[in-house]
Amino acid sequence: MPEKFRTLYYVLWIGHPVLQTAIAAVMFHRRKYREFKYFFAYLVAQIVTFAIVFPASFYSYTAFFYFSWFGTAIGVVLGFQVIHEAFLDVFRPFHTLRDLGTVLFKWAGLVMLLVAGVVSVSTGSSDSVPWVQAIMTAQRCVRIIQVGMVLFLLFFARYLGVSRRQQSFGIALGFGVFAMIELSLIASWAGNHLGNGWMNLINMSAYNGALGIWLGYMLSKSPARDVGSILLRPQRWEQGITEIHRPLAADSLIPMFEGMVDRAISRTHGPIAPEPEPAPAQSVVQMNGLELSGLLAKAASKTE
């Protein structure tokens, strides 16, 4: 790498802990580390990793190699947790959707570990050891999940009543933008369209841009979610998943009442029964009354 590129590379690299420290300080001052604890832990881990890896790069390549990949593994795990944390904040009003998303994230993490393990075992490259291949594969899987998360928020924010000024949206946006640039750089490098020097410079600049996005969102005040902005569509999703997760019990009174209503309706719309004929006893009583009144009239006329 030429000397001017090397100087620019170190300037961009030193900018990482400076911006990360500023973001962590703002979060600590505004008590945001309690709301986004994994994101705060990610920033602290990156600062500690830089404090170890940067001096090691001048004295021992072996120490630099192992510490840098160890820090990358920690960043992969925490980066996955940060996206899950942003997802939970977005779906905070919808408890059932949030629980479903948590299950999906767990399965995604398990699949990611399985893919990383298979790639590390089946790789035949002699350029890198298997555990390095596993970390690289897991990192790319996390980058893909981060891109998917930011695309999901961009397209479905209005359905969920999520403001693009919310800090959870900014965290996902920073990760998503950096992930898209890094995956594009990896594809260009694999196709021999980009050298190592330019790839490292662009990647460093992209990460500094993501740090700038996070710093801007942490300095700005996140708007409170308006209850009226919770739209009907996610509420229907919430209700549908709740009904699937919690079906009606077998001894519920609702089926019994429905059966009673159905029977009442069937009786109402059934054939009209014929009117019953008058009972013989009633006709006898009526005839006896008429005969008695006639006899009394005749007796009165004779008396006169």
SS summary, helix count: 10
Q: For the CA atoms, what is the radius of gyration?
A: 38 Å
Would you tell me which CATH topology applies?
Rhopdopsin 7-helix transmembrane proteins
Spans of at least 5 consecutive residues with low confidence? 247-253, 279-293
Number of domains: 1
Shape category:
globular
> Main sheet, how many strands, which sense, barrel?
none
What is the N-to-C order of secondary-structure elements (H for helix, E for strand)? Answer: HHHHHHHHHH
Oligomer: single chain
- Total number of beta strands: 0
Q: Please tell me the CATH architecture by its name.
A: Up-down Bundle
Under CATH at level 1, the class stands as Mainly Alpha
Please give the share of residues in helix. Answer: over 70%
Mean pLDDT score = 75
Terminus-to-terminus distance: 150 Å
In short:
The chain is an all-alpha fold and 304 residues long. Helix content is 79%, strand content 0%.
